[in-house]
Automatic annotation (TrEMBL):
This is Structural maintenance of chromosomes protein. Its main location: nucleus. Residues 516-637 form the SMC hinge domain. Belongs to the SMC family. SMC2 subfamily. Pfam families: SMC_hinge, SMC_N. Residues 178-277, 359-439, 671-705, 735-850, 900-934 form a coiled coil. PANTHER family: STRUCTURAL MAINTENANCE OF CHROMOSOMES PROTEIN 3. Keywords: ATP-binding, Cell cycle, Cell division, Coiled coil, DNA condensation, Mitosis, Nucleotide-binding, Nucleus. One of its GO terms (molecular function) is ATP binding. It comes from the Eukaryota.
């Protein structure tokens, strides 16, 4: 099997698809300049063979194998290799029917990786097995010699060289089998130890235990028989006693019923007498009613209504009076404050007017003096250095003035000539233009109309609120929000899927069911104050974390019965749950013991939750303390004043009962941390969706404006185009060109006239300045002295004035600003006070009117109450004189009824006695039935109960003694039953059989171990023979190849002094019979030949179908490289070689040569056939 072709697409430097075809079955070479992709072809072969150590292909990750790491738009790398499989002797297992095998490997950005064999997706192991079956294991390669391996061979120690020979000879298989046998022996030894431990620790104690349990069972059977006999006797006595109690209770019930009958007759007689008294009272009351009627009742009702009205009127009267007084006082204060503020404001404004005028004068004077000072300083400096005005000497100034006057005269002459010529040309053109101006005017009118249209459209566009940039930004914002929403929703869905247990799902149990009645699971209702407490709180809550909180037990029943719950659920009704929060004093003591509030905290204080579910949260978290560490939890839990369950931050639990729970945390992360993250994601998702909706609405609103804007924009572009066309057409006419030229000439004439005026003025000024300077030059010395003194005095005076004005201005500036701010505050205060005063005045008027109305209403109500009170007093005096006789009759009736009540009370006591007696009789009957049901032997044995000398004769025994004896027997039976094994006899025989089975297994294991030791000895001997044979063969080939590459030299492998072949091998080299002591005596090229000869000798021992060599001749000269090429061509005819080399001596011996080059930043390959082969 050999390579026929390679296709590279996006792999390393091969950005485009490159197909390398025409590989020779024997000798192929690859050459090219550095960096053109020679070694990348070898890397692609290793990539397809399934290499896992990417450092061997000079990459840190699979992404680095993609062209420019995927940054150039190419996002995947694909390599396909087609193998010729016509030689069935070298065919991979399972592919004997295929003449060609195409293996493809592809890696995509992000690390995705896939394999294909003949176009079918396969697993990585399938490809590895295919190549390993033909000795092409790329992860333990002896067919792959990359850059640097030659140097590594030279530095190997004797055991490492021996391991290379073992790899080539295949004796590693024996070592692997030996290691497997050793592991099996270790397992057998462990099994023997296990069996001995089973016999000693398990079976032998069980045998002894079963023997003891058999004795215990026999004693238990004896106690059961005795207990059964005594129980029958005691049950018979209980049965007879119960029958007697039933008869006695029934007799007592009859007596009590007779007594009740007598008392009921007395009650009826008393009721008749009370009825007669009622009739007499009714007659008297009827008589009183006829005389007085219902006048008193009506008067009292009317009085109550009037008193209520009077009270409310009095309250309203007082409130109105107080409101009026307060309002008037407030208005008085506001008027006084307003008057004060207005007076102060007027004073301040007068001061501000005066200060403002003074301030402005001072500031103007200061600025003027500062400017005068600067001019005086400049003048003084110029005079002191002998210069004036322009900073030059008088002589130079005189020359400059004369030159300036001359230049102005020249420009005047030139401008007059140009102006005259332009005016003559302008007159001629104007006469020509006037004869053809009508068409030009029409064209200008057309342009003006189109310009008006453009201006109108431009104005409409400017007036629209639509903005293209804002619309684009809104669309981009919408797309960004959609991407963010999808990402947040995916993350939230992933977390929600992992937290399904935290969600409570149910079907509404009835129509119009209010979902607010279900608060949700405990874990969804809480927010942890800090993530570090999550583990502790999860442990503290345990399974209660998933309990469901509802409002009442009614909701609980509805959900459990008709909510179609899919999981078993515990429900907490808030109206029934009993909160169990630790007392504050206990928490305080625990914190003192634990070292402070930061060390010990109540679990309830570490979570936030809605107030309405506080009872449920107290039940879940209120009884547990959270401690910072194990030591603190231990001290707090077992302290006598605390004795409370504690949980550490790591989830370890201390219980006052003495238990300690802990160990590894639950896998998958903290539920509460994930819930917190899920809540944040849900809030973020809600915000994103809200923003997305708003953005969509804005975009929809913009769409109509966008359409109108686009239509106007199109009209504007068309109008502008029409305007430009008209302007271009008009500009191209001769009339327009004539008009432009006339306008240009007119402008030129205007500019020349202005220039003439400027030049004449400049000429006059320069002449006057020259005349003045000539006079100064004549009297230069006196002039300078006068100018110096004058400038010095002016400077001194200017400094004094500037300092004085500046000081005054700065002093008044702060006062002016303070005064202005005070006036502003006073104006605000006056406006506010006026508004408040107006409002208070209006309120006072309204309150005064309300007060007058309340006063009149209160007076009327008071008069009504007084009148009704007098009438009622009069009516009561009339009735009181006639009611004494009625009172006596009522007293007599009450006495009769009181006697009846006493009799009824006694009847109830008797009825209660009857119930007790009936209950006693019923209990006895139930006891009888229960005994009959529990002991079916009673009916058949009833006739013998209590017979003297019989089985059921309890005359000789007291019932208390029998009960005590029964109690003792039951306790003894219970003690024996605690450790009782009823199958002890059967299990004893089974355990003895198991003991014999274990002994048999032990013998089998010992025999297996003996056989394995013998097999290991055989493997060692077979490995030794094979390795000695391989060493001899490799040694011969090593010597032959080295002498071929370097004539006159000898090389061999031999053990180090004092050691054997199986201990290690070292390389020895000689020249003409003289052996070198060390390889360090050789040159670099000789050392490379030695290493290469050794590697080739090992390759020759057990040839593979393919060999890959990468610049193995880098350190060799041309003659040695030529020899290696010839040797490979002659000695390795049954394998395919793919060699990368930069030397002619190597690749000129190849049958096919591939040259790599760089084209447009990518590698390309050119094939050449060696014509000399």
């Amino acid at each position: 099997m050999y390579i026929k072709s390679i296709v590279l697409d996006g792999f390393k430097s091969y950005g485009n698809r490159v197909e390398v075809t025409g590989f020779d079955p024997e000798f192929n070479a690859i050459t090219g300049l550095n960096g053109t992709g020679k070694s990348n072809i070898l890397d692609s072969i290793c990539f397809v063979l399934g290499i896992t150590n990417l450092s061997n292909v000079r990459a840190g990750s699979l992404q680095e194998l993609i062209y420019k790491h995927g940054q150039a738009g190419i996002t995947k790398a694909t390599v396909s290799i087609t193998f010729d499989n016509k030689n069935k002797q070298q065919s991979p297992i399972g592919y004997e029917n295929h003449d060609e095998i195409t293996v493809t490997r592809q890696v995509v950005m992000g690390g995705k990786n896939k394999y294909l064999i003949n176009g079918i997706n396969v697993q990585n192991k399938r490809v590895t097995d295919l190549f390993c079956s033909v000795q092409l294991n790329v992860n333990n390669p002896h067919f792959l010699i990359m850059q640097g391996r030659i140097t590594k061979v030279l530095n190997m120690k004797p055991p490492e060289i021996l391991s290379m020979v073992e790899e080539a000879a295949g004796t590693r298989m024996y070592e692997t089998k030996k290691q497997g046998a050793q592991k099996t022996i270790e397992k057998k030894d462990a099994k023997l130890r296990e069996l001995n431990d089973i016999i000693r620790e398990d079976i032998a104690p069980k045998l002894q235990k079963l023997q003891d349990e058999r004795s215990q069972f026999q004693e238990y059977q004896k106690v059961v028989r005795e207990l059964e006999n005594l129980t029958r006797l005691h049950v018979a006595w209980q049965y007879v006693t119960a029958e007697e109690n039933v008869v006695e209770a029934n007799n007592k019930v009859t007596e009590v019923k007779n007594e009740i009958q007598q008392k009921q007759e007395s009650i009826e007689s008393n009721i008749a007498r009370a009825t007669e008294v009622d009739q007499e009272v009714a007659k008297l009351n009827q008589k009183l009613d006829e005389e007085s009627g219902s006048v008193l009742k009506d008067l009292e009702t009317e009085l109550q209504t009037a008193e209520k009205s009077d009270a409310s009127m009095a309250a309203a009267h007082r409130a109105a009076k107080e409101a009026v007084t307060a309002s008037e006082a407030k208005a008085k204060l506001l008027r006084r404050a307003l008057a004060d503020d207005k007076t102060a404001l007027a004073d301040k404004r007068a001061v501000l007017t005066q200060a403002s005028s003074t301030f402005e004068n001072l500031r103007s004077a200061s600025e003027a003096q500062t400017q005068a000072l600067a001019e005086a300083q400049a003048q003084f400096l110029a005079v002191s250095t002998g210069q004036e005005d322009a900073g030059e000497s008088l002589q130079n100034q005189l020359m400059a003035a004369k030159q300036q006057a001359s230049e102005a005269s020249t420009r005047i002459s030139q401008s007059m000539m140009e102006k005259k010529h332009a005016e003559e040309r302008l007159k001629g053109l104007e006469r020509e233009f006037s004869s053809s101006s009508s068409q030009h005017r029409r064209d200008l009118e057309t342009i003006a109309e189109q310009q008006a249209v453009v201006d109108r459209l431009q104005s409409q566009l400017s007036g629209m609120s639509f903005s293209e940039s804002r619309c684009t930004e809104t669309k981009e914002r919408l797309r960004t929000l959609q991407r963010s929403t999808r990402g947040a929703r995916d993350r939230a869905d992933d977390l929600a899927a992992r937290l399904q247990r935290c969600n409570f799902r149910y079907t509404p149990p009835q129509p119009n069911f209010d979902p607010n009645r279900v608060a949700g699971t405990v874990c969804r209702l809480i927010d942890v104050v800090h993530d570090k407490y999550c583990t502790a709180l999860e442990t503290a809550a345990g399974g209660r974390l998933y309990n469901v909180v509802v409002d009442t037990e009614v909701t609980s029943k509805l959900l459990l019965q008709r909510g179609q719950l899919q999981t078993r659920t515990t429900i907490i009704p808030l109206n029934k749950i009993s909160p169990a929060r630790l007392p504050a004093e206990t928490v305080r003591i625990a914190q003192e013991i634990g070292g402070g509030a930061d060390k010990v905290q109540l679990a309830l204080d570490l979570v936030k939750f809605p107030e309405r579910v506080r009872a449920a949260m107290q039940w879940v978290f209120g009884g547990t303390l959270v401690c910072a560490d194990l030591e603190t939890a231990k001290r707090v839990t077992f302290h006598p004043r605390v004795r409370t369950r504690c949980v550490t931050l790591d989830g370890d639990v201390f219980d006052p009962a003495g238990t300690l729970s802990g160990g590894a945390r639950a896998k998958g992360g903290s539920v509460l941390v994930m819930l917190s993250e899920l809540k944040q994601l849900e809030q973020q998702l809600q915000q994103l969706e809200s923003e997305q909706t708003q953005c969509s609405d804005n975009l929809a609103g913009m769409q109509a404006a966008a359409d109108k804007y686009a239509a106007l924009q199109q009209k504007l572009e068309m109008s502008r185009h029409s305007l430009e066309v008209a302007k271009s057409r008009v500009a191209a006419t001769a009339h327009a060109q004539l008009h432009d030229e006339i306008e240009s000439l007119r402008e030129q004439v205007k500019e020349l006239s202005a220039a003439l005026e400027r030049d004449k003025k400049e000429q006059n000024e320069a002449a006057a300045q020259a005349k003045e300077l000539e006079a100064k030059v004549k009297d230069i010395k006196g002039h300078r002295e006068r100018e110096y003194k004058k400038a010095e005095q002016a400077l001194k005076k200017a400094k004094q004035e500037a300092e004085r004005h500046n000081s005054l201005w700065k002093q008044r500036e702060q006062e002016f600003e303070t005064l202005r701010l005070e006036i502003q505050e006073l104006e605000n205060a006056v406006n506010t006070a006026e508004a408040q005063l107006q409002e208070t005045t209006d309120n006072t008027a309204d309150l005064a009117q309300a007060f007058e109305q309340a006063q009149s209403d209160h007076t009327a109500a008071s008069e009504t109450v007084k009148e009704l009170q007098g009438r009622i007093k009069k009516q009561k005096a009339t009735i009181a004189s006639r009611s004494s006789e009625v009172a006596k009759l009522v007293q007599k009736k009450e006495k009769i009824l009181k006697g009846n009540s006493e009799i009824e009370l006694k009847i109830k006591e008797l009825e209660y006695s009857i119930k007790e007696l009936e209950t006693e009789a019923s209990n006895c009957e139930k006891r009888i039935k229960s005994l009959e049901k529990e002991h079916t032997w009673i009916p058949s044995e009833r006739q013998y109960f209590g017979l003297a000398g019989g089985v059921y004769d309890w005359g000789g025994r007291a019932p208390a003694e029998t009960a005590a004896c029964l109690t003792q027997l039951r306790e003894r039976k219970d003690r024996l039953a605690r450790g009782l094994n009823t199958r002890a006899h059967t299990l004893l025989g089974s355990e003895e059989q198991q003991y014999q089975e274990v002994l048999r297994k032990k013998q089998v294991v010992e025999q297996d171990r003996k056989k394995l030791v013998e097999v290991m000895g055989e493997l060692d001997e077979k490995k030794r023979r094979t390795l000695v044979s391989a060493c001899d063969q490799v040694n011969r080939d090593f010597a032959s190849i080295f002498s071929t590459l370097l004539p006159g030299a000898q090389a061999q492998l031999r053990p180090p002094p004092g050691q054997g072949v199986l201990d290690g091998l070292e390389v020895r080299v000689g020249f003409n019979g003289t052996w070198k002591e060390s390889l360090s005596e050789l040159s670099g090229g000789q050392r490379s030949l030695v290493a290469l000869s050794l590697v080739l000798a090992m390759l020759l021992f057990k040839p593979a179908p393919l060999y890959i060599l990468d610049e193995v001749d880098a350190a060799l000269d041309l003659s040695h490289t030529q020899n290696i090429g010839i040797m490979l061509k002659e000695h390795f005819r049954h394998s395919q070689f793919v060699i990368v080399s930069l030397k002619d001596g190597m690749f000129n011996n190849a049958n096919v040569l591939f040259r790599t080059r760089f084209v447009d930043g990518m590698s390309a390959v050119q094939r050449t056939v060696n014509q000399r082969r």
